[in-house]
Structure formats: C-alpha cells, structure tokens
Amino acid sequence: MVEKTQRFLVAVLRFHGDVLLTTPMINEIKENYPDSIIDLLVYKGTGSILESDHRVNNIIEAEPSSNANVIKRIFKEIQLLRKLNRTDYDFGVFLTTQWRMALMARCLRGAKTAGVDDVKRRKSFWVKSFTFIFPEAGEGHIVERNLSALKPLGLSSINKEAGLSLIIPQEANEINERYAIGTNYCLFHPVSRRETKLWKKEAFAKLIDHYANQGLKVVLTSGPDQMEIQYLKDIEELTKAKVINLGGKTSLIELAALIKESRFFIGLDSVASHIGAAVGVSGVTLFGPSNPVNWRPWSDKVSIIARGQEEFCQTHGHMEGKYKKCLCYISVERVIEEV
C-alpha cells in the first residue's frame, strides 16, 4: 500500500525575517517526511526570499491587515479561505497570532493544526480553532518556539539545534560582477524598519572610514524604501572613503549573495542579520530594543551588541515608549572590538 504524501501549511503573517526564521522548521518537516508537500502562507511580498527553496512547494500570499482598501482585502480574504478549504492539508502550523489565523485553521478540515498560546488569545474561539496550542517563546528563541509546534503534530524526530538555511540561485551572484565588487569587501546594512533600531549615521561613517583605511571595500545596502535609501546617502556624505552604495538596488536574494561572499557584515535588528546567520558568515548585529533572547540571529558566527537596559541619551530620552531605548550608547570602538 502506497503511503499518502503528507501536506503541510506553514503560516507566518509578519515580515521577511520571520519568514526566513521558518527554515529550520521546514527542514525538520522534510527530515520526518521527505516526500511531503509544504505550502508557505505569508504576507504579500515577504516570501520572495524562499522562492528558490526546493523544499517549499507553493508560496501563498495574504493581503496585509494594514491594506487601506478594506473591500479589496475582504474579497481577497474570502478567496484565500476558500482556497485553503479546498486544499487537502494534513497539518497546519500557525506561527502568528492574528485573529484571521483562527479562521484559516478552521478551513483546514480534518487537518491537525497548531496555534500559538498568546495571552491575548485565550478565549474559546481561538483555542478551539486549533487541534493543539503550543507555548510562546518565553525565554527561548523564536526558532525553538517554531520547532516546538511540530511535536504535538506527531513529528517525533526534531533537531532543536536546526539552523537557518537559504538557497541562493547562481544568477543572484551576478550583482557582484555588475558593480565590480570583487571579494575583498565587508557589507554594512545600516537600516531597519523602525527608527528605534537605527544607529547614528556619524558612527557608521567613522566605521566605514576605519575599514576602508584597512584596505577593504565597504558595501552599503538597504531596502527599496526612499527613507532607507536617503539614510545611506546621508552616511555616504559623512565619510571620507569611497563606498559602494547599493541602497535600494538589490533584491533580498541578491543581498544574501553579497552577504555570503563578504569578509564580514555589520547590521541592525533586521532581515539582513538573519540572512547573515542563514548563509553562515561572520557578523555583528547592533541590537535594540527588541528582546535579543527571542530575536537574535540564530548563529554562533553572528554576535550581538545589546545592553538590555539602554541609557537615555539627550536626543531620544524624552521620547515615548521604545523610542528612548536607542543605540546611541554603542561606540564605534565597541563595534570594531566585536568584529
């Protein structure tokens, strides 16, 4: 009798880095069920980094909750729920805690499903939407939390030390030749989605000059957002050295190719640091104000600089919430020492 191919849905509605952090789980599913079909459900545009991953059969996109066109979003959501309902899934793992996840889980009729035990989601509707509830990360890493979701689903052999992985197609390496970068370079990704995670432009400029004086080319990268691109231009204007400014000019997979071949990288709490962990390169991440225990790059080769109780500086100390927990206390010398 031919054994039925097991079909998994892994749902993570968050950001690019969160999608990359599912790769240890994806690998462990394949270790337990080599012939399984794995579909990834993500926010529109965030699954691009895994498009070349042969372990992922389909990337299904959901409209972000912040989509301003409410009617369009509802229409797309109904289409998505119907698609999930028609697909014969055996397992569903839901890694984020939006209420829509509960509806999606209910569409997987007959499947074993696992959802996160969130303190704000302990009402009957949420709990009864899933076959099993698995605990939040607590004092562990988000990768460990993700892997823990597989045990109640019946996957017995799980490597809790499974690392991130990223498959880079050959064509992604062409960006190096396009900009004549070569091999003797370091890469800085000095931007993040949130202002609270940024370091001083002047500090990055001094860091660039330091490594340029040592004979290294310095490559700067950012996403396509105009504020990020301008941030890199501001840094470039403060430097004495010539830099290779690729702000807004790389796809995520091209960024991964560049990070992989660099001597080392320096980044912030962003997808770039998780990419560094996935490709196995040495690096330093300036971390704050997120909890590094939960969100640090999942690699021994990437060190973090984080104090936990950041000092209130003159510029940010008066601001509300996380904004006053800035990275201004980190000196250029401290970063050089860590590298």
UniProtKB/TrEMBL annotation:
This is Lipopolysaccharide heptosyltransferase III. Pfam families: Glyco_transf_9. It comes from marine metagenome. Keywords: Glycosyltransferase, Transferase. GO terms for biological process: lipopolysaccharide core region biosynthetic process. InterPro entries: Glyco_trans_9, LipoPS_heptosylTferase-III, LPS_LOS_Heptosyltrfase. GO terms for cellular component: cytosol. One of its GO terms (molecular function) is ADP-heptose-lipopolysaccharide heptosyltransferase activity.
